[in-house]
Amino acid sequence: MHKFFIAAALVALAILLNPYITFASGFDYSKLKGRRIMLDPGHGGDDCGAVRHGVKESHLNLSAALYLRKFLELSGADVIMTRDTDEAVSLNARFDAIDKVKPDLFISMHHNDAADSFYAKPDFKNYTEVYFSALYDGNAANIISGLSFYGAFQKLYKVGTVKIKPGYFRVIRNKNIPSILMEPFFMGDESLVKTAASPSYSRHEALVYLKAAANYFAKLEQAIKSEDLQYAIPPIQNLTQETFDVFLSSSTNESFLKTAAELLNLNNFKTVANSEPFLGDKNISSHYASKLLALKDYLEPDLLPAYIEAIRSNSVSAKIHISLSFDSAKKTAVYAYYKSANGKKLSETIICALKAAGIVTEFKPDSFYILSSTSSVTVVLNLNPQEINLSDKHKMWEINMAVYSAVKNYLSSK
User: Which of 31, 46, 109, 401 is most buried, most CB within 10 Å of its CB?
Assistant: First the structure.
């Protein structure tokens, strides 16, 4: 007990001495006592992550993590780190360590970046991104963790705006461990990133993390006592975990890729189309989607269809994911994740197949949500309705044949 009061005093002193702290109460860090928490400072060694204005992301991640470890240990938590020096640790090593340690909570600590054009926008405003583990098989602990970090990071100095999103990053894919991946701010903001490079800001950021973790365990304990952990979530044991080779999605036009799906299935490439209901609501994706919808009021409404699409694609472990969009504000083009060599290869195969059908398009590497949130090789084909007559049944058939032949050729080459 004496040790606990000393710890409480030290944490309180750190709060009072930190010039960036805008809160000094409102969380019960006694709930951290005895908890096993794993911290994962992203990048390290030769992998610096983002580098902006002379500041390395890997250094920011580690600095905040070391302070957080100190505060958590003072609060009685058992802390394990994937790295505590400036060293490179592979994603596989980090993931394997989670399964070995089996922490009560896993926190992957990062800082964000984007293309220069993102920062050049007249309306640019920095914000925090909270990614919670979307494929968690347990109760609603992942929802509670997401909301806890969402609430705490609204107090982050010089940021304040927070967006919460379902995440599928490798390190938060353990289905049995509530996991969070944090991107507190975008590093292209010169004033903020130079401030963040100071020890004072690292301590401040660590204390925001401390509040988030403490609130998580307090809310989890309360939910367990009230038996309010299911949120009308379909029991996972009643759902199937059927897998597919190909996942096809065509926005609100569910039948657009029907011919491609039928031909792929006839050729023994097991294919499923994104539809309502999805697989009769008997697939495990219903479990994950129900949790997501419990957070509906906190999510960006225009991204909700993409969130559901990603959950379904990941749930069926698709090898290939083809998503159609019909955006008249964008040219007809094929998009793939900018770091995916396989995505580029599949895109080029689709472009060739479309060219044979008289449809000229181009490849565009990008990083928008659906491209970076699936374990499959994912391609988005945008068909501009002002450039292509989508009511032309023959043209619709040609597009289906192009998608079918491209996917077939790609999978056959593997």
Answer: 109
Written as six digits, the tokens of 347 are: 């895109």
Task: Tell which CATH architecture fits domain 2-226.
Answer: 3-Layer(aba) Sandwich (3.40)
Between CA 49 and CA 125 the distance in angstroms is 22
pLDDT in tens, 104-118: 999 999 999 988 989
* Domain-wise residue ranges, the chain: 2-226, 236-412
pLDDT at site 371: 94
The domain defined by 236-412 carries CATH number 3.90.1300.10:
no
Q: What is the three-class DSSP state of 235?
A: coil
Which tokens in the block code for residue 60?
């920011």
* Residues whose CB is less than 8 angstroms from the CB of residue 64 and which lie 6 or more positions away in sequence, other chains included: 41, 109, 202, 205, 206, 209
At 166, is the secondary structure helix, strand, or coil? strand
With a cut of 50, say whether residue 88 has pLDDT above it.
Answer: yes
Q: How far is CA 258 from CA 248, 255, 274, 401, in A?
A: 9, 5, 10, 11
Residues in the chain: 414
Place of tokens 């964000």: 112
- Report d(CA 34, CA 77) in Å as an integer: 5
Average pLDDT over every residue of 151-179? 94
What CA–CA distance (Å, rounded) separates 212 from 351? 46
